[in-house]
Write a structure and sequence with these properties.
The chain is mainly alpha-helical and 128 residues long. It has one domain. Helix content is 73%, strand content 0%. The chain contains seven helices and no strands. The longest helix has 29 residues, at 40-68. The mean pLDDT is 92. This is IMS import disulfide relay-system CHCH-CHCH-like Cx9C domain-containing protein.
């Protein structure tokens, strides 16, 4: 589950949100025969971009889950509602369901062409 989510996050970051820095890094690695040590500047730029992009990646995953995985999302929301009185531990207690919803969304995004055509939602569209 988590590895599929990670794959989707990386793909969204590299192909959509940090396309230029990702391309520059790829180019550097190609030219240097895969020597990461010689591409420190490109790696640093990509990491900064990827960190900045993280909220957008999360929004895209949650939006995709809402559209493509409604039963997983509502199971997670139901769990949070039921466990809501436990001092903010609901998210933690329902983490497995959260993972299922995000894994489902990640699989949908990893379909050919899905990332390229995905619309990155604006802030405030999270379903937690």
């Amino acid at each position: 589950g988590a590895d599929v989510i990670e794959q989707a996050c990386q793909a969204v970051t590299a192909r959509r949100l940090c396309r230029e820095t990702a391309a520059a890094l790829q180019r550097c690695l190609r030219e240097r025969g895969g020597q990461a040590a010689q591409c420190q500047a490109e790696i640093a730029r990509f990491e900064v971009c990827a960190n900045d992009a993280m909220p957008q990646v999360v929004r895209l995953l949650t939006a995709t889950a809402s559209q493509r995985c409604p039963s997983e999302v509502s199971a997670f929301q139901r769990c949070v509602k039921e466990k809501g009185g436990q001092g903010g531990r609901a998210e933690e207690l329902c983490e497995a369901l959260d993972q299922q919803a995000l894994t489902c969304a990640s699989r949908a995004l990893l379909q050919p062409g899905a990332i390229d055509s995905a619309v990155i939602p604006k802030p405030g569209s999270e379903w937690t």
